[in-house]
Design goal:
four-stranded antiparallel β-sheet, about 250 residues, 10 helices, Endonuclease I-creI, 8 strands
Length: about 250
């Protein structure tokens, strides 16, 4: 007999797109056993099924998670109802992984959060019934190939917590680097923030919010495409450092 944790792990691998054969080889569990669990499995997470959909009570955590979702998040349906929220986080930033996990728990404390290891990154994952309600930007296809617009209640949260939203965007698709230049034979170094995203709509959400908090920005093209939002002025970088800082 396999315990509940083992069954959950095998089924989550299947839900993540793995074949039954590969899950069987990785876990050492027979395919017949896994197949039986997919028919009737008490171990599947059945979380908050009856809970009504409501706006998040922890709005600061939501603003941060919204930024992460717009950068590196996706939602996928579960075959037996509900949906998975997944936020991809690089292994190089363990602090980011923990912040992401904490934000999900702050928004949906009754749901479970687990980390699935991938090559060079992890998927911080949560199963629930309301992720598409909380992130109505979910839809078919890539985000940069469709319109991304915030609902009115989302914009109110971003307006109330702009730095948390910006922190989520920078932590997902941004960075803080040290640039350098040579003047009069001397090397000068200066910090700079970048936010890089293919979606015109998501970049505009970033730049609109930067403007609201008094941060001046420019757009730098990658080839002919204006993918990069840059913050390089000394006073603006200092303000970003005070509220965001480098990833860790």
């Amino acid at each position: 007999m396999y315990d509940i944790a083992t069954r959950k792990h095998a089924l989550r691998l299947l839900a993540d797109g793995r074949s039954m054969n590969s899950v069987s080889k990785e876990t050492g569990i027979s395919r017949s056993a896994i197949r039986a669990w997919t028919v009737r499995v008490d171990a599947l997470p059945r979380l908050n099924q009856a809970a009504p959909c409501a706006a998040p009570t922890d709005q600061a955590a939501y603003a941060y998670l919204l930024g992460l979702y717009l950068g590196d998040g996706c939602i996928s349906p579960h075959p037996r109802g509900g949906e998975y929220l997944r936020i991809a986080c690089a292994d190089a930033w363990p602090g980011l992984i923990e912040l992401c996990r904490a934000a999900i728990l702050a928004i949906r404390p009754s749901d479970k959060v687990y980390v699935l290891q991938r090559q060079g990154c992890v998927n911080v994952t949560s199963y629930g019934r309301h992720w598409t309600c909380l992130f109505p930007q979910h839809g078919p296809g890539k985000k940069h190939e469709r319109q991304i617009v915030l609902e009115g209640w989302q914009q109110e949260i971003v307006d109330a917590h702009p730095w948390e939203f910006l922190r989520g965007l920078i932590h997902s698709d941004g960075c803080r680097i040290t640039n350098w230049t040579v003047r009069n034979g001397k090397r000068y170094e200066y910090p700079r923030y970048f936010f890089t995203n293919k979606s015109d709509d998501i970049r505009k959400l970033c730049t609109d919010t930067l403007t609201k908090v008094g941060v001046r920005w420019t757009v730098l093209a990658r080839g002919s495409d204006p993918f990069n939002v840059s913050v390089a002025r000394k006073d603006c970088v200092a303000r970003m450092d005070a509220h965001i800082g480098p990833k860790y």
